Amino acid sequence: MSVRPASVGSFLRAAPPDRLPEVVAHHLRTWYPVDAVEMLLSDLTMSALWPVIDPESPAGGPLEQRCFGSQQPVSDNGSGKLLLPLTTWGDRLGVLRLQLTADPGQDALAEFVTVADELALAMRAADKDTDRYRQVARRQRLTMAAELQWELLPGRSLGGERFRLAGQLDPAYAMYGDHYDWSVTDDRLTITVLNGDGDGIEAALLTTVAVNAMRNARRSGANIVEQAELASDAIYSRYAGQSHVATLLLEVDLTGGAVEAVDAGSPRALIAHEGDIRGVSLEQQLPLGMFGDSRYEIQKFQLEPGDRLLVVSDGVHAATPGGRPPYGEAGLLNALRRTRLQPPTEAVGTVIRALRDYHAGAEPADDAVIVCLDWLRRTA
């Protein structure tokens, strides 16, 4: 009598990087009352879920979107469908869709969740070695500038016991110089939002220099002042002051909620708490790379448990489509209030959609970035 393997993980590690969904499908059909398996991945705009194993099978509908948004398993007893979120370290990848032939029982349901978690982790590792999953996620061709920007991104969401974090870029397929970056180490979460000068591939190259200079400094143990100064020097040595990068650098103490900031330009921070929204008052310093040997100072503010910190680029707060008032004066606040009950992963999409509606069909003059952080609580 065959004994069911304890884990699908060993099979995933032995599989070619482009065949992970098929390995999981074979495992589930062999050992469980499962008739069909499909993996659906989110597109770049986070607005639709697309099949991988059989591209002709149905795309994600309301149930799949509910699973993706809630990050909880969803079952439809009438059709025998079971949906499981594919997520790793808070980064939402998609949904695993199973067609069951019988009630699997509670033990099997727990095992399905484990299989989905192992698949998501393997997908994250395999992403650099195959184009298969990226080809599903992009529904049209990216510009070269957008290709550079997507390669730079750390992910689209991140989470832990003490925080939830998400970011979104728009337009996904033709962005320019706006960008975000983050990293968590021990009790410190570093977040940067950038608005590179210019447009097209030149803006993307400028942002690439800035992001990698700050990462180089950060990974060498430098604080955010040293990160800003190294990046500023690198940009100035390359562009001699002709191009610069407006940047907001933040370092959050996840234990106590203290935030250190270097405000080097146009991205703005806001704090929302129980429906109240206030801007974070920071003294703006010179954008990175404007002058040689620029020096920066740290400013501080405090988060309280339950606070939501939002950072937006000038493509959001300063958008004036058709001569309308800047979006940040009223439209942004209204959009943020609608996100009060949404997790950061959903809130960033709500704000971006509201910004598109504000343009009323007009072509945006700039790309846009929003990053949303929920600091949950102090730990004992």
From TrEMBL:
<feature type="domain" description="PPM-type phosphatase">
    <location>
        <begin position="165"/>
        <end position="375"/>
    </location>
</feature>
<dbReference type="Pfam" id="PF07228">
    <property type="entry name" value="SpoIIE"/>
</dbReference>
<keyword id="KW-0378">Hydrolase</keyword>
<protein>
    <submittedName>
        <fullName>PP2C family protein-serine/threonine phosphatase</fullName>
    </submittedName>
</protein>
<dbReference type="InterPro" id="IPR052016">
    <property type="entry name" value="Bact_Sigma-Reg"/>
</dbReference>
<dbReference type="InterPro" id="IPR036457">
    <property type="entry name" value="PPM-type-like_dom_sf"/>
</dbReference>
<dbReference type="InterPro" id="IPR001932">
    <property type="entry name" value="PPM-type_phosphatase-like_dom"/>
</dbReference>
